[in-house]
C-alpha cells in the first residue's frame, strides 16, 4: 500500500501521538470520578478545569460558560432543544439556513413535525446566507436563530457578526446559536465580540478523540437539559465526565495554531490550501466550487463527467483519502448544500471535498495532483 | 429434554432405485452443516432421518438444518425406548409413557393459558392401543396434571396452540411438539453444479436460493469494476454469498476484473447498446468459468420485463453467446414475490444497502429494449473480445465463503 495521504479532516481527523499519550496517561493515572471527594477525584477535576480554561481563552469567554458534551451533534441538539424547551413561551418560530449540518438541519425538520415553524434562510452561489432576507424573517415570536460559522462542504464563512447584529436589532430576545464545529481552530472567533449566545465545537475535527465536544452557553441564559442525573456540568449535561477525552482535547488544543485578532485565519493551513487551489485550477476537467475567502482547510471542486464517488474509490487505491461531500451525507445521493447554492445536478454528481490538516506537506499535494490527473485520464469516457 | 431431531424429506420419497443416493447426499449435507458443533449420530428409518444430540445443542442444530434443501420439516423430539416389539407394550410401559409425555409438555410449554391436542401416528399397527384411545388417555394425563389456577389449559381439537404428536414405529415411540418447515426440494449437489451470476441486488441471491432448492451445488461470479464500484459493494456480495452458504454449504466466489471491459464498451459501442453488450460479456466470462469449474449451467436473477435488458429480445441476445443453458428461476416472478422471499432467506437487508454494482454505474439514458441480434453482433465487433476476457480473468480474485 502506498503512503497514506489523508484529506478528509472535515469528516474526522487523526488523533495525534501526543494526544493519545495524554489520553492514555489520564486513563492510567486520573481514573477517579471528578465528583469524588478524595484527592484523586480532585486531581481528575483539575483536568477539566485546565481544559475549560484553555477553551475559554481561545473563544474569549469565561471558563464557566463551557459545557462539555459528547461532540458536535450533541452540542447542537442541546443548544437547540435546550433553548426552545426552556423559552417556548416566547413563541413558536425558528430560523436556520438551507446549508446547515445534518445535526441542525434534521433536528429542525423534526421540530417542524413537533409544531414549530421553521424558516430556512437561502444562500447565494458562494454558499453564504442571504442576510438581507434575515431581517424580514425575524418575527416577534422568533425564539432562536441557528446559523453555522463555516460550512462543512464548501468552507464558506458566514458573516456571524452581521447576523447577530441583525438579530439583536430586530428582536433582542431572540437567541443566536452558531455551529462552530468546522470553524474552531481554522478561523478566529471572539464569541464575546460576535455577540453569540451559544456556540458548538467538536474535538475530533482538530485531532482530539471522538466522543468529546463542548457547547458555549452565555452566562445568564437558562437552558433546559436533555438529560437528568448527577448534576455535572451545572446540571446542564449530567453524566460522569469523560476525563480522559478531555485531557486529550486539552492536549490537542495546545497543538493547533493559536489564532487571535491579528491572526484570525489559520495561515499555515491557508498557505497549503492556496497552493492546492492553484494546482487544481490547472486541470481543465476541474471546476472549483468553494468560494474565494473560504475557510482555510476546505476545497470543494467538481469533476467533469466523472462521478465524485468513482474518484473517491480510485484515489483510495493510491492511499489518498477524500470524500464526495460531507461524510454524513455521502450515503445520500447528492449534496443538499450544493443544490441549495444552485449548482447543477451534473456539477453535484462530480463534486469532491478535500479537507486539510496542518500535517499535509507540499510534496503530498503535488502527489495528489498528479494522481488526480492520472485518474481523470483513466476514468474519463470519451 | 429433547434428545434427537426427526428430519422429514418429501420429494426424495418419490424417487425410484436411486432414492438412496439422494438420502445419502442429504445426510452428507446435514453432516457438513453441523460439523463444527460436534460429532453426532445420524440414523435413517422409514423415510425419516434421526439426528441424535444432547438437548443443549438441539435448537442450534435445528436452526441450521431447517435451511437445508431436501428437508420438508424437522421436529425436536424425545424417544421412548421399548427395547422390544411394540406389540408387547405393557401397562407398566404405558404408565412410563404417560410420565414422559407429561414431563415433555411441562418442560416445553411455558406460556399459559393455552390449548393443546394429542395426535398419534401408528406406523407400526401392531401397537396394542388404538390411536383415538391413546390420544384421549395421554391428553387426559397431561390435562389433569397441569391444569390449575395459574396454568389454564384446555383441549382444542380444531385449532390447538400445541399439537402434541406421538409417532409409533418399530421398537420406538417418539414424542414431539413442533414441526419446523424446511425449504423442501432436493438435497444440494444431487442435481449437479451451476454458476450463479451474483450482482448484489435483490434478485440474484433469491435465484441462487431456488437453484440450491432444486439440488444444485452453486458457485458464484461477481463482476467488479473498481473504482466505479466500491469495496463496499464487493463486501455486500461476499455477505450475500455467506447467506446462501447457510443453505448450500461453502460457495466459491469468482470476481473477474470488469473495469476495462466496461470502459471499452462505453468508449466503443453506441450508448443504447452498452447494457446488452455488457451482459453478453458477462455471460461469455461466466461460460468460461463454469466450464472450467465443471458447472453445467448458469443461473441469473432475471425476471421478465423488470428492466430494459430483461425482455425476450434481451434474453435472446444473452443466450446467443452462451453455450451452457441459462437457468432463470425468477423469470415469471413479480418483484413483490421476490422481495418477500429475499426477506425470508435473509438476503434482503444486505441487498438494499446503497452501494452501486456494475450494472448501475453506466446506465444509458435510453437503453434499447428490443435489441436486434444482427445489430448487437455488428456493434460488438469494435471490441477485442478475446483479449478483454483474458485480461479480466488474469486479475480475477477467488474467494471461498461459508
TrEMBL record, chain A:
Residues 5-368 form the Aminotransferase class V domain. Keywords: Iron, Iron-sulfur, Metal-binding, Pyridoxal phosphate. Gene3D superfamilies: 1.10.260.50, Aspartate Aminotransferase, domain 1, Type I PLP-dependent aspartate aminotransferase-like (Major domain). GO terms for molecular function: cysteine desulfurase activity; iron-sulfur cluster binding; metal ion binding. PROSITE patterns: AA_TRANSFER_CLASS_5. InterPro entries: Aminotrans_V_dom (IPR000192), Aminotrans_V_PyrdxlP_BS (IPR020578), Cysteine_dSase (IPR016454), PyrdxlP-dep_Trfase (IPR015424), PyrdxlP-dep_Trfase_major (IPR015421), PyrdxlP-dep_Trfase_small (IPR015422). Its cofactor is pyridoxal 5'-phosphate. The keyword Iron-sulfur applies. The keyword Heme does not apply. Belongs to the class-V pyridoxal-phosphate-dependent aminotransferase family. NifS/IscS subfamily. This is Cysteine desulfurase. The lineage of its organism: Bacteria, Bacillati, Bacillota, Clostridia, Halanaerobiales.
Automatic annotation (TrEMBL), chain B:
It catalyses: [ThiS sulfur-carrier protein]-C-terminal Gly-Gly-AMP + S-sulfanyl-L-cysteinyl-[cysteine desulfurase] + AH2 = [ThiS sulfur-carrier protein]-C-terminal-Gly-aminoethanethioate + L-cysteinyl-[cysteine desulfurase] + A + AMP + 2 H(+); [ThiI sulfur-carrier protein]-S-sulfanyl-L-cysteine + a uridine in tRNA + 2 reduced [2Fe-2S]-[ferredoxin] + ATP + H(+) = [ThiI sulfur-carrier protein]-L-cysteine + a 4-thiouridine in tRNA + 2 oxidized [2Fe-2S]-[ferredoxin] + AMP + diphosphate. SMART domains: THUMP (SM00981). Pathway: Cofactor biosynthesis; thiamine diphosphate biosynthesis. Coiled coil: none annotated. Its EC number is 2.8.1.4. Residues 59-179 form the THUMP domain. The lineage of its organism: Bacteria, Bacillati, Bacillota, Clostridia, Halanaerobiales. One of its GO terms (biological process) is tRNA 4-thiouridine biosynthesis. Belongs to the ThiI family. It comes from the Bacteria. It holds the Pfam family THUMP. PANTHER family: TRNA SULFURTRANSFERASE. Catalyzes the ATP-dependent transfer of a sulfur to tRNA to produce 4-thiouridine in position 8 of tRNAs, which functions as a near-UV photosensor. Also catalyzes the transfer of sulfur to the sulfur carrier protein ThiS, forming ThiS-thiocarboxylate. This is a step in the synthesis of thiazole, in the thiamine biosynthesis pathway. The sulfur is donated as persulfide by IscS. It is found in: Cytoplasm. Keywords: ATP-binding, Cytoplasm, Nucleotide-binding, RNA-binding, Thiamine biosynthesis, Transferase, tRNA-binding. This is Probable tRNA sulfurtransferase. GO terms for cellular component: cytosol. Signal peptide: none annotated.
Amino acid at each position: 500500500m502506498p503512503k497514506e495521504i489523508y484529506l478528509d479532516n472535515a469528516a474526522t481527523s487523526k488523533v495525534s501521538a501526543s494526544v493519545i499519550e495524554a489520553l492514555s496517561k489520564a486513563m492510567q493515572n486520573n481514573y477517579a470520578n471528578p465528583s469524588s471527594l478524595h484527592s484523586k477525584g480532585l486531581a481528575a477535576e483539575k483536568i477539566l478545569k485546565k481544559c475549560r480554561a484553555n477553551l475559554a481563552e481561545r473563544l474569549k469567554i469565561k471558563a464557566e460558560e463551557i459545557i462539555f458534551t459528547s461532540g458536535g451533534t450533541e452540542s447542537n441538539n442541546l443548544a437547540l432543544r435546550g433553548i426552545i424547551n426552556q423559552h417556548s413561551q416566547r413563541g413558536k418560530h425558528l430560523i436556520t439556513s438551507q446549508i446547515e449540518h445534518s445535526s441542525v438541519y434534521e433536528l429542525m425538520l423534526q421540530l417542524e413535525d413537533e409544531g414549530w415553524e421553521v424558516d430556512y434562510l437561502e444562500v447565494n452561489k458562494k454558499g453564504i446566507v442571504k442576510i438581507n432576507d434575515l431581517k424580514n424573517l425575524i418575527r416577534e415570536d422568533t425564539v432562536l436563530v441557528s446559523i453555522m460559522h463555516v460550512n462543512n462542504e464548501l468552507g464558506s464563512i458566514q458573516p456571524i457578526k452581521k447576523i447577530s447584529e441583525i438579530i439583536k436589532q430586530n428582536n433582542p430576545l431572540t437567541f443566536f446559536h452558531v455551529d462552530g464545529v468546522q470553524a474552531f481552530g481554522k478561523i478566529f472567533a471572539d464569541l464575546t465580540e460576535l455577540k453569540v449566545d451559544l456556540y458548538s465545537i467538536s474535538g475530533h475535527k482538530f485531532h482530539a478523540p471522538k466522543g468529546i465536544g463542548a457547547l458555549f452557553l452565555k452566562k445568564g441564559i437558562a437552558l433546559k437539559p436533555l438529560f437528568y442525573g448527577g448534576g455535572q456540568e451545572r446540571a446542564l449535561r449530567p453524566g460522569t465526565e469523560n476525563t480522559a477525552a478531555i485531557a486529550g482535547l486539552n492536549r490537542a488544543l495546545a497543538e493547533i495554531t493559536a489564532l487571535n485578532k491579528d491572526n484570525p485565519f489559520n495561515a499555515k493551513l491557508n498557505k497549503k490550501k492556496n497552493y492546492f487551489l492553484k494546482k487544481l485550477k490547472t486541470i481543465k476537467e476541474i471546476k472549483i466550487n468553494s468560494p474565494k475567502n473560504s475557510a482555510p482547510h476546505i476545497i470543494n471542486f467538481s469533476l467533469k463527467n466523472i462521478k465524485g464517488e468513482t474518484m473517491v474509490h480510485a484515489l483510495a487505491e493510491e492511499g489518498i483519502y477524500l470524500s464526495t461531500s460531507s461524510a454524513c451525507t455521502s450515503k445520500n445521493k447528492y449534496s443538499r448544500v450544493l443544490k441549495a447554492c444552485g449548482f447543477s445536478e451534473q456539477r453535484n454528481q462530480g463534486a469532491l471535498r478535500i479537507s486539510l490538516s496542518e500535517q499535509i506537506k507540499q510534496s503530498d499535494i503535488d502527489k495528489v495532483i498528479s494522481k488526480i490527473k492520472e485518474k481523470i485520464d483513466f476514468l474519463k469516457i470519451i | 429434554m429433547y434428545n434427537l431431531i426427526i428430519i422429514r424429506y418429501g420429494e426424495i420419497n418419490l424417487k425410484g432405485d436411486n432414492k438412496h443416493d439422494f438420502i445419502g447426499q442429504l445426510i452428507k449435507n446435514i453432516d457438513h452443516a453441523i460439523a463444527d458443533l460436534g460429532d453426532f449420530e445420524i440414523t435413517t428409518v422409514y423415510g425419516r432421518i434421526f439426528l441424535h444430540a444432547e438437548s443443549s445443542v438441539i435448537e442450534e442444530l435445528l436452526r441450521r438444518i431447517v435451511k437445508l434443501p431436501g428437508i420438508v420439516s424437522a421436529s425436536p423430539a424425545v424417544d421412548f425406548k421399548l427395547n422390544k416389539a411394540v406389540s408387547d407394550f405393557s401397562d407398566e410401559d404405558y404408565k412410563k409413557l404417560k410420565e414422559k409425555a407429561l414431563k415433555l409438555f411441562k418442560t416445553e410449554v411455558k406460556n399459559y393459558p393455552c390449548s393443546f391436542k394429542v395426535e398419534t401416528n401408528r406406523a407400526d399397527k401392531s401397537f396394542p392401543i388404538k390411536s383415538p384411545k391413546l390420544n384421549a388417555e395421554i391428553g387426559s394425563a397431561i390435562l389433569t396434571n397441569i391444569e390449575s389456577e395459574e396454568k389454564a389449559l384446555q383441549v382444542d381439537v380444531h385449532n390447538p396452540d400445541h399439537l402434541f404428536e406421538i409417532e409409533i414405529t418399530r421398537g420406538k415411540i417418539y414424542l414431539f411438539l413442533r414441526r419446523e418447515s424446511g425449504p423442501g426440494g432436493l438435497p444440494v449437489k444431487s442435481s449437479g453444479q451451476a454458476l450463479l451470476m451474483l450482482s448484489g441486488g435483490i434478485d440474484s441471491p433469491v435465484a441462487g436460493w431456488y437453484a440450491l432448492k432444486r439440488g444444485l451445488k452453486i458457485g458464484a461470479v461477481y463482476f467488479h469494476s473498481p473504482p466505479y464500484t466500491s469495496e463496499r459493494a464487493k463486501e455486500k456480495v461476499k455477505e450475500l454469498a455467506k447467506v446462501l452458504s447457510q443453505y448450500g454449504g461453502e460457495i466459491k466466489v469468482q470476481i473477474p476484473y470488469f473495469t476495462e471491459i466496461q470502459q471499452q464498451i462505453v468508449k466503443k459501442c453506441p450508448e443504447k447498446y452498452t447494457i446488452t453488450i455488457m451482459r453478453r460479456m458477462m455471460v461469455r466470462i461466466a461460460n468460461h468459468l463454469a466450464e472450467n469449474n465443471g458447472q453445467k449451467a448458469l443461473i441469473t436473477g432475471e425476471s421478465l420485463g423488470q428492466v430494459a435488458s430483461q425482455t425476450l429480445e434481451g434474453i435472446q441476445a444473452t443466450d446467443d453467446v452462451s453455450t451452457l443453458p441459462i437457468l432463470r428461476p425468477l423469470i415469471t416472478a413479480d418483484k413483490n414475490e421476490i422481495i418477500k422471499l429475499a426477506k425470508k432467506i435473509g438476503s434482503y437487508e444486505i441487498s438494499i444497502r446503497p452501494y452501486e454494482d456494475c450494472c448501475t454505474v453506466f446506465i444509458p439514458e435510453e437503453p434499447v429494449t428490443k435489441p436486434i441480434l444482427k445489430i448487437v453482433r455488428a456493434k460488438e465487433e469494435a471490441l477485442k473480445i478475446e483479449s478483454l476476457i483474458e485480461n479480466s480473468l488474469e486479475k480475477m480474485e477467488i474467494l471461498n465463503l461459508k
